[in-house]
Fold each of these.
Amino acid sequence: MALKKINAHADSLIELLIAQCRDLERLLELSRREAAALEREDFSALLETVRERATLGERLEVYHRQLAELRAEMGEDLAPGLKNEWASRTIELAMEIQAQDAETRAALILMRQKTGEQLALLKQARHQVSAYLNEGRRLPIACDRLA
């Protein structure tokens, strides 16, 4: 009985794992491109990469649901037998993506802090310029023509 379950679903499972692995490889590539765009401070490329990653993320969620359904049909006792090179590669890719994303997140936080500091300096400079331009000006005096 268990062998029939495996044979009935093995091809679908392997196809899903291969497709998931390919999309994870693409996601890792996009994660690296995102980090490079951040280093160059190319925010249009960064936003485009984020959009592409979102699309891939949606597709990966579908794979995840389909894999969960197949595993449920095949039974949890068969799960240890499902470990193959594609499943291992999937785990490896997910870990690489998480590591790259952690680095990118740290760089984004640092950039946000620097930008905040620069905005504060800009605001201070604007106030100083305004004070300088107003210095020495006489304040207008309202005169009553009837007096």
Note: Residues 17 and 86 are 6 Å apart (CA to CA).
Amino acid sequence: MATFAPPVHRDKFLYSSILYADAGNDNHHPRASVAELTALLRPEVVNSKAKKIKTQTKTQCPEGDGEVKDWPWHFWTAQLLHYGLTATKDKNAAKVRLLSALNGEKLEVPGWIQRLEGELKKEWEAENRKLKKAAKGDGVPKLGKSGELDGSKNVSTKKASANTVAVSGKAKSTTSKRKRDGVSPLESSKKAKVKNASKDMVSSPLTKKNSAKPPASQKPPSPEEPWPASYRKAVAHDAWKFYDVDHLAHTRPPNAPHPRPYRVSCPDAEMEWEQKTIPEFYLAFSATEDEWWSRFKWGAFEGILILQRQPKRVNKAIGVPFKWRANYAFGNEDGDGEGKIFFDSASTIRGEFHNFFREKPCHFRAEAIQSAPQPPQISQGTPVLDQMRIEWSQMPTTMHDAPTKKSARVKKENNSQTLSSPPLRNLTST
């Protein structure tokens, strides 16, 4: 079957007849089976007969110097992607990860990659059928032996047979001759132009089909609750730039939320400041294998929050819990608490801080910064996460220095009455 559709890309994968993993630098590799990887990584367990059968596990050198015993680094990186393991461009490290999974009998294709492969296959085959059908319908008729166009011979016989009971061989030849004579050179030239144009663009019926209106049974989405307008004039700052590159992006399902910087709208916090201009609110998440970390600086409050589990999918009903620790600059007081974040979509979130402003929760919404530049690739370590871990571990020690007597707290509150920002309610006591 001839192929017309281009490869379908998504994240680190592309599909064209089979699924390929993109290891970088335009190096694409299909998935090697567990048996093939076993023959490469553990040749001692493969008997001599199996070695003769699986000759495809060996390849030729690019220079043609003969057979080599190993594949290049991008082959092993692609296999890590295919099996949902943490990718690396170090060939030895990649082989060790595959071998560890193989020895532990955990080398298998994750379910989300299987679903992704099915979606890409369905999309690619559908586009391939459309393009083949369009190319076939707009094809140029070929000349027959008699010099006439073969396309003129493709006449409908069903309609003629319904109106004709018996036709002699002479009548058939006369009819076909008349139809051949009825084909003008202008019509054939028009067909040739359509043939050339179909190579560069998709035909109009495809566009109409893709832009079809949704069925009437589907109800339009209900509008969200109105969000209060901002109470202050924001001053931009660069806090959202301080986050680590997502080293685990290839392990996340396609529609799962990804750690990224968010611009936050928080009327509850904005109402507490008398200042007309304060820096904008940002959350810039950095991810570990189990948690998401982010700094926040809202007016006089500055601290760190930790999402206590990875958000696997969009969910408007169930929030991801987080814990926070912060310092209140004006009162030199520290506090901590909890909260929840709801991932309404892959690019929008809403959440609430508990014990942040006296008795009421502090609600906020945030939208991902789509044009945010990627942080620099760090070969070793995660400097932003490492610094946040250090500060988080030091915060309980710092909290012991916070005022513990009621009189001391009241005195500080009286000294800061000119500011409308309240102290943190959840104070750490010794």
Note: The mean pLDDT is 67.
